[in-house]
């Protein structure tokens, strides 16, 4: 027993020494490369031997830690986690340089093992490498789901979403009076219904899954949304940062990933099978599945499952995060809420707000963009990989580095935004309080360049009509003690605890 422990300790010590030598070797290569190119290297944040900056990032909210480091190291710096060197970009100029000007040198992604599983081995528009597959699939998703024409075809689903939401909230008031409502519960269920209609053509109440039995909508929601997000959030598996130690088993986490993958694929296949029968019977269907079955003839069943799942997860999550934060901030700021209500009334009168009104409601637009700025749902763009030597912000960046574009950091840049940490929608209004369509680009919340988010139009339409209609129908106030509850879930910026608000119908 004693010998075994001694052998294990020796193996770990040798492993650590080897790792340190490898890190030193790459560091030297980088230093030499920087000397050859005549450009300075990216400033490094000091860390510990072998593990680098891992301990400083253990809180799992790297985007806000990076903002603190900007004060010492400037807008571009590099960190090390195990053997990985990551260049972090924290202002708009360097972020745009990486996403647009130098894109051709930084166009691939190296995902961790867990993140690969969550993304069906990178078979998603958002997570695959740039190339033919990406271009074709992005065209498909824009043509069928997210582009302007597709959004026109799906308008009926968005109107139903808003009507159901308002109905559910009035029912809550009728049954519970001024008891606080958990907005997230109601909204996420409605968004999921919309996502299912866009993806497979129908809002599913129940489904029979051969491997799992009969599942209700909440069970399907858990398998398709909650479980994969949970695995994704836990995905910073330390073995990914220490390639030499990849052989060390981590059974529990491995089992969790396998279970999630198995259940998700089983549900997606059952949904596809059922809906394919409807499509084959000639039934009129306006959904992505029908399009993929006819247009994407070369796609496998698993690829179709992953592309459909992409629509379901992306439609359900980020939209909910943005709307919840916007209502939280409005409930916290009664004066601003009143100004928004007056703006809506002055444009809509006794009509209910619709998407047609949005371009005449500058304060509503400002609330949306300021919420994206301060509570950005994707604070760090999924890591990009540098496959050939390049430069960023006037510094030499060697091939093999990874790039973290900290959009949250860009939006907290004091040189660009006055008091950046304050939620103040009026900063988006010019002197004439006009609507400015270019606001999306100011926050870069939807990225830039060839990987620009195609879901921006859908999110803008849904979140703006949601906020507008809910402020038109109800006065929002936070439950006592909720104001300070601004903690978030790791790297997705979702509110840690669902918002609980007291809502008072305005027509009482
Ligand atoms: C507030 C909500 C949203 C935000 C802040 C957001 C943000 C982003 C960002 C920053 C990117 C770029 C990632 C990169 O450069 O690697 C992106 C890509 C993407 N987003 Fe969104 N997104 C949102 C909502 C949506 C929705 C609702 C959908 C679809 C239903 C969607 C679909 C996509 C897709 C398919 C990509 C990949 C584009 C590509 O790689 O070419 N997004 N999103």
Bound molecules: protoporphyrin IX containing FE
The main pleated sheet reads as:
4 strands, mixed
Percent of residues in beta strands: 5-15%
Oligomer: single chain
Radius of gyration: 24 Å
Strand arrangement across the biggest beta sheet = 1-2-9-6
Number of E strands = 13
Description:
The structure is a single chain. The chain has helices at residues 2-37, 62-73, 92-101, 113-118, 132-146, 148-153, 155-176, 183-200, 217-233, 238-241, 251-280, 288-295, 301-332, 334-348, 362-374, 407-411, 439-443, 456-473; strands at residues 76-81, 84-89, 181-182, 206-209, 213-216, 380-385, 390-392, 395-397, 402-406, 474-478, 488-489, 494-495, 500-505. Strand 1 (76-81) and strand 2 form a beta hairpin. It is built from 18 helices and 13 strands. It is globular and about 70 Å long. The mean pLDDT is 89. Helix 8 (183-200) packs antiparallel against helix 13. Helices cover 54% and strands 11% of the residues. By secondary structure, the protein is of the alpha+beta class. A four-stranded mixed beta sheet has the order 1-2-9-6. Protoporphyrin IX containing FE (HEM) binds next to helix 5, helix 13, strand 6 and helix 18.
